[in-house]
Amino acid sequence: MGFDPVTIGIIGLSLSAATAGVGVYASATQAQQANKFGRKQQQAQTHAAQVQERQIEAQAALEKEKTEREAHHIRSTLRVAAGESGLGLGGTYEALMRQADLDQALNTEIIERNAAMAIQSAYSQVQPRPPTQNALLAGIMGGLGGAQTGLSLGAAGMGLQQSMTTPPQRTPSQMGLGQRPGTIPPSIFGRG
After folding, report:
1. What is the C-alpha to C-alpha distance for residues 185 and 173, in angstroms, rounded to an integer?
2. Residue 68 in this model has a pLDDT that exceeds 70
3. For the segment 54-67, what is each residue's pLDDT rounded down to a tens digit?
4. Cα 41 vs. chain centroid, distance in angstroms?
5. What are phi and psi of 31, to 5 degrees?
6. From CA 181, how far away is CA 132, in angstroms rounded?
7. DSSP 17-34
8. 128 DSSP 8-state letter
9. What is the DSSP secondary-structure string of 163-186?
């Protein structure tokens, strides 16, 4: 069952084309999937940061409300104390009222700065999207790799065909030449 060299060549080219096609498809698909995974990963991280931002803002609003209530309580207590003493809100009481307002403003500013830094930290955890892979270029590279594999297989097939159609070359010693007259080559008896 021998194939002529043209058939072997056609088989080699067919193998080359088939493996090139598989290489193109596999490489392009892999590049598209890597791009899709990168986009989804970044979207998930951004969503998590947005959720965390909403939580931080809600916590900051609650802290501001607490600060406001505390300052209102201090001012109310000072008014009552001033009214009971009969001195009015001047002098020491006025200074204490300004201090309560100042403390409230400072605490509110600290809460807002801490919230802004926490939000910035949440977004800094979002990894930049990895560079996308060009599916066309990846397909071309995969096709070239597949073509090279196919050509190698075709060349191996042609080498096999040639070795099957060409009788083995025997050296003079294998043919019994160069031995002393009257001796039988050892290969005849299965030794050697």
Report:
1. 8
2. yes
3. 998 999 999 999 99
4. 8
5. -65, -40
6. 78
7. HHHHHHHHHHHHHHHHHH
8. P
9. HHHSPPP--TTTTTTTSPTTPPPG
